[in-house]
Amino acid sequence: MAPRILTLANQKGGVGKTTTAINLATALAAIGERVLIVDLDPQGNASTGLGISRAGRDVSSYDLLVGEARIVQAAVMTSVPNVAIVPSTMDLLGVELTIAQHADRAFRLRDAFRAIDELKINNQSVSYVLVDCPPSLNLLTVNALVAADAVLVPLQCEFFALEGLSQLLQTIEHIRSTLNPRLSIQGVVMTMFDKRNNLSEQVLQDVRSEMGELVYDTVIPRNVRLSEAPSYGKPALLYDLKCAGSQAYLRLATEVIRRERRLNAA
Predict the structure, then answer these.
(1) If you average pLDDT over residues 10-33, what whole number do you get?
(2) Closest C-alpha to 129, from 217, 191, 244, 46
C-alpha cells in the first residue's frame, strides 16, 4: 500500500513546523509506523534536529527535485527507530532557478515519490511521509502540496494567527482546483500554547470557531524541553519523554492516525 504523504505547511516562520515534523514522526514511529521525513527547508533544521551533520548530507532533497537522485539514494536512517530523512542543504536556495523553466516544475516531488517503494525501513515499506516546508509559499511549498495527500497546518497561538491562515487556505484551495484534486486538510494543530496567557486561550477559541473540527483536540504547549531537544540532535520524545511537549505529540499522533482511518474510509 502506498504511504500517506502529509505536508506540514505555513508561510509564517517560527510556528513549530519543524518541531512538529520531528516529534510527530517520532511519535508515529513509536506506535509502529515507518516514517520518512523530507526536509524541504534550505535552513535544514529538521535534518539538524535529527542529528544529521552537514557532512552527512551527500545526497539531499535538492538532488531529488532536480532529478539527480532517487529517494532510496537520498534517504538516510536517523537515530530514531523507524524514522528516515531526506536531508536538506543550502543548495535548495537555488532550486527555483534550476527548475523554473521546466513545464513539470510543480510536479518534481510528486514524481520522485513514485519510486518510494524502493525505500525500506527495517525491511518494510514506508507508511507515512512528512514533508517539512520552508516558511513561504514558494515553489518548494507548491511541490510539497502537489505531492501530498493532505496538509497539516501548525498554527502558533498568537494574535495574527488567523490572518496568515487565510492566505495558506487560499493557496491550498488553488492547488486543489488546479494541480492536485485529492489534496485535503488533515488538520490544524495549535502550537506554543501558554495556559497562563489569556491571549493564547482567546486565539485557540477564535481558530476553533473559524475552523471547527479541522482543529485537533491536542494542543502543543509552550515547553522548554521542546526548544532544547534540537540542540542535542534529538526529538523531544527521546530527549525527555515525560515532558508536556512530548506527551502532547504522542496524543497528536494518535489523533492523526484516527483521522487518517476516517479519511480512508470515506
Answers:
(1) 94
(2) 46
CA angle 166, 21, 137 (to 5 degrees): 35
User: What is the DSSP secondary structure assignment for residue 70, as one 8-state letter?
Assistant: -
Q: How far is the C-alpha of 218 from the C-alpha of 99, rounded, in Å?
A: 39
Cα gap 154→212, rounded to integer Å: 15
C-alpha cell at 132: 517539512
Q: Which of 92, 81, 97 is nearest to 38 (CA)?
A: 92
Confidence at residue 160, expressed as pLDDT on a 0 to 100 scale:
81
Whether residue 53 contacts residue 83, with contact meaning beta carbons closer than 8 Å, is answered with: no
Non-local CB neighbours of 56 within 8 Å, separated by 6+ positions: 76, 87
CB distance 16 to 220 below 8 Å: yes
Q: How far apart (Å, rounded) are the C-alpha atoms in residues 20 and 38? A: 13
Between CA 122 and CA 101 the distance in angstroms is 39
Helix extents (H) in 59-183: 61-65, 71-74, 95-99, 108-112, 139-147, 161-178
3-state SS, residue 107:
coil
CA angle, residues 181, 68, 94, in degrees to nearest 5: 75
pLDDT band at residue 209 under the 50/70/90 scheme: very high
